[in-house]
Every structure is written in C-alpha cells, then in structure tokens.
Amino acid sequence: MAKWYEEAEFYHIYPIGLLGAPRRNEGGEVVHRLERLTEEWLPYLKETGFEAVYIGPLFESVSHGYDTTDYKLVDRRLGDNGDFKRFVSVAHDLGIRVVVDGVFNHTGREFFAFRDIREKKWDSPFRNWYKGVNFDGNSSYQDGFSYESWRGCAELVNLNPWEEAVREYLLGVIDFWIEEFDIDGIRLDCADCLEFSFMEEMRRRTGEKKEDFWLMGEVIHGDYGRYIGDGTRMLHSVTNYELHKGIYSGHNDHNYFEIAHTIRREFDENGGIYKGMKLYTFIDNHDVERIYSKLRNKEHIVPVHTLLYLLPGIPSVYYGSEFGIEGIKENGSDDPLRPALDLKDMRETNPHPEILEWIRVLSGVRRNHKACVNGRYRELLLTNRQYAFARMEDEDEVIAVLNNDEQATEVSVQVPSGDKSYQDVVSGEIFVPEGGRISVALKPCGSRILVLQGAK
C-alpha cells in the first residue's frame, strides 16, 4: 500500500515571498502574516486537490531564510510558533500534510554558536561546530579567523557534521519540530552536501518519532539512487532536476526524445535505474525561473503539466505558477521568482484559467487512478513532436498522448491492452482498438488522457 507521500500532490510555498515579508529581518515585533496562509490558502489548496504543502524556509533568519539564526523560532516576519502550530493543525484537519525546510548544512553568522566563536575565538566551546575554522586566517568580514562557507557565500557558514554535538543538536531540532508542530516531513536543503551517515541517523530517529515521516533531499547532480538506497535507511526521495530540465527544453526544442530518454533511463519497466523510487518532480521552484517564463510557446504549459502529473514521480506545483505568473532572475537575485501574491486577486483576475482548470483534471485522474502513482511506465509512441506513454497497474491503465507541434495532428498509438476500449477523461470519447491500435486526434500543443474503460 502506497504511503501518503507517494500519493500526494505537493504545493510549494516560499513564505517570505508569498506573504510579502521584508527581505531583511531588522528585529522588532512579530508580524502575524502566517494567518493568511491558514485562513485563505489552505482551503484553496484543499479545493484544488493538493494533499501536501512544502513550506519554507520558516525559521528565524537574517535575510532569505537559509541563513538561520534560530531553528526553534518561527521567523518574526512571518509570525510566531503558535501561528505555525495552528497552520499545521488546520492543514491536518483538511487532510493536508506539512513538510518544512531543514537547513542543516549551514547556519547564518548570527546563529548562537558562530556568534560565540566570533566573540571568544579559541576559547569558544563551539569552535569545532563549523568546518575549516582557522585562527591563522581571516574572513571577508574581518573576523580574525577564516571558515568554510557554502559556495563561497560568507554569510552561510558550513556546519561540521562530524562533531557529535552538532549532530545531536540538529537531531534535537527535528525532535522539537515534530513534538512542537506535528510536521509530517522535512525537505533537506543542500542534501548533496550532507554526510550520508547523518542522513541515515536522521531517518532512524524520525522513523521512531513518527512512522510515516518523510525525508526528501535537494539533490541537483549525480546519482539520485545514492541518497535513497534500498528505501529503508536513507532518504525517501530527492528532487528530480534531470527531468525538470528535460520537460521544458523538450518542448522549447520540439524534442520529445529528450524527455523520453530521461524517463527511459530513470523509470523504464525494463531496467530503469530509479525504477520503484519516487522522485520529487517539479517544473519550477524558488531557485529556478518560472515555467511560464521559460516556455517559448506559452501554449506548451498544458502538456508540460500533463507530464508533471502523469510521469513517474511525486508532482509539485510552485505557488502562483498555476496562474501562469512569470519570474526571471535579475542581476543574480532570486526575488523575482518569489513575489508576494494576493490569493483573492489572483483568482478574480486569473489571466490563464486554463492552467488551473487542467491541474484540477490531472489531480482527479491521479487521485482516482493509482496506476499514476505506482504503475509501471511504458513508452507507446515517440517522435520529435508527439509522445504517448502508459502507466499500468493490475487492471488500471492511464495513457497520456501529447503534441508539442503548433499544428493539429492525428497519431496511431499501440495500446497495452490490445482489444479493450479506452475513454478520454475530458471529452468522454470512446476509443476501440483495431489491431491493437487507436487513432487519437490532437490539438496544437495539446494533450489527452485516456483511461481503460471500467478501470477503478
């Protein structure tokens, strides 16, 4: 039986941006912005079909949220711990799981341990909490010592996971989050920088606290399977950046071979290297430009979402992209990717209602056909501009047929079940195979979803 995190459709929220919080934390009074998420956004997510929310970063920091100053305190720009407890409680009442950002590779310079080193130097009991601390060197901040930072960003100081006190502190933080807020999982920031033994320890500890607790890692390059292993000792999932790139460039270049090759390599029923694993699928997030900005032909937004929901993986929609908002990095800043949004205004003035409407269709298909969650993947048709595949489990079959061409076309698709009929989930049209094939008409930049008649 599938776990909740394998069946879930995620909605990804970057709260500092969505809620219009100041980009710098200047201290001062708590502002209870999280209440808007609880009162307005959670009911909307339930209504749209999302069953899980990944929200973060949440905890006290100086700027963008990844320069943590206090792991046990909700950022005052967003609210307080009570606000987040209520957010989780209301989400759970609606049947929505909550996953938060765990930023455990580094802290900000104002974190208590690093501040103590700055003040006491050699005499600090925390001098081994960070990597590369060298009192014969100096930093760009003129600290009187040098240290290792994440990708050379001096405000992000790399923790030393081999220091037992550091590991215990971070594991204690996770205990606190589970006990205090009742969260359902953690997305591990920079998981590809964390020690494997630390992640194994985290898996064991969180499993003891909450049996169905989910751990998902941010991994950009390399072998995703290394972080999941046999599925029992490491992480449950990682980000599928390889597929993310293929989905948008495969449309921009009119090259479905790129997408199909990636999926064949990862999930083919005969030899896919990640077959059986549930990777986290996305088409944009808080670090990459908005999908609507990246697509040269905006009409490709419909088949792009079809792939997001029906290819193997755990689908995630980044806040606002269901309304077709745009966002491109400017002068190295991610701020344009993380705008403030007013939900009431977005729904009333939605310039691209077809996206949200199609997401609702896809959500219903995925929820009603478990073949989309656990089913085998089989490629049925592949050209540069047309692509069809099936997801199959027992007597349940779902077929997606896509067209990235600007012209309407008709394709002949070999179906898995031979002589059984299929039905279009939108139009209701029935397809009766002849010689094991069906003929499917496709609109320009369109996609269709067919299900085996009688399948539940």
UniProtKB/TrEMBL annotation:
Any one GO MF term held by the record is:
cation binding
Which keywords does UniProt give here?
Carbohydrate metabolism, Glycosidase, Hydrolase
InterPro entries from the UniProt entry? Alpha_amylase, GH, GH13_cat_dom, Glyco_hydro_b, Malt_amylase-like_C
Q: Which GO terms describe its biological process?
A: carbohydrate metabolic process
* Sequence similarity: Belongs to the glycosyl hydrolase 13 family.
Its Enzyme Commission number?
3.2.1.1
Reaction catalyzed: Endohydrolysis of (1->4)-alpha-D-glucosidic linkages in polysaccharides containing three or more (1->4)-alpha-linked D-glucose units
Query: What is this protein called in UniProt?
Result: Alpha-amylase
**Which species is the source of this protein?**
Wansuia hejianensis
The chain positions of domain Glycosyl hydrolase family 13 catalytic read 19-366
Cross-referenced SUPFAM superfamilies: (Trans)glycosidases, Glycosyl hydrolase domain
